[in-house]
Amino acid sequence: MDLKFCSITRFCITALLWLAVWPLFGQHPILEGFTARQTGETMRIDFAIKGGASCNGVILERSEDGKSEFTPVDQIPGVCGGSEFTEFYVMHDASPLWSQLNYYRLILGTQGFSDTLSVLFVPPNGSMQAYPIPFNTTLQLQWEGAENEEWLIQWFGADGTEVFSEQPVRAPRVQLALPDLAPGIYVVVLRHPVDGRRLQLRVLKANLAP
Q: Can you tell me whether residue 46 is helix, strand or coil?
């Protein structure tokens, strides 16, 4: 058998196997890391390019659901990487989507896209926070309010249909057991019955594994 043919065949099989499993790793091969976190009223995105790798410019994009259109929110012009050492970079989203998941990805010059990250943006003090997101059976809410101050809570489906009627809860936190609530996106509304203050937050109930 032709040794050259065997070598080429072996290379092709290896390449095909790599392309088949590459998406499972969830990270572009030139990236050493790719993370996102909230800092105050903005999102901070950190990434690193491996030593010996480079790309011509990086664009940070955001989407509201990870499927629809991605919009550029920051960019680094010129060559990134290129040295023998890992190089670290920071980008920012100055106007993230409040009270919901933000989906981010990088355009690495002509080398394609990074994987997509999702990060929940929780409004700063003065608003409501919910965790964990997504939740399975129990959700904890926390908000600015005097100790034992009574608020009214309502739940709405993504289509605006009221799921729960108004129920009293006491500030500054409450834990809700919701084992029978169907998976999906909901809007939680807190309303002060006296001064009319109103807080709202979008939450996600996860699908439970069978």
A: strand
- DSSP class of 209: P
State yes or no: pLDDT of 160 exceeds 90: no
| CATH numeric code, 26-121 | 2.60.40.2060
Per-residue pLDDT reduced to its tens digit, 144-155: 776 778 888 989
CB atoms within 10 A of CB 134: 15
**pTM, rounded to two decimals:** 0.53
Residue 98 contacts residue 121 (beta carbons within 8 Å): yes
Answer yes or no: are the C-beta atoms of 154 and 166 closer than 8 Å: yes
pLDDT above 90: percentage of residues in the chain: 35
What's the CATH code, domain 129-205? 2.60.40.1220
- Give domain limits for the chain: 26-121, 129-205
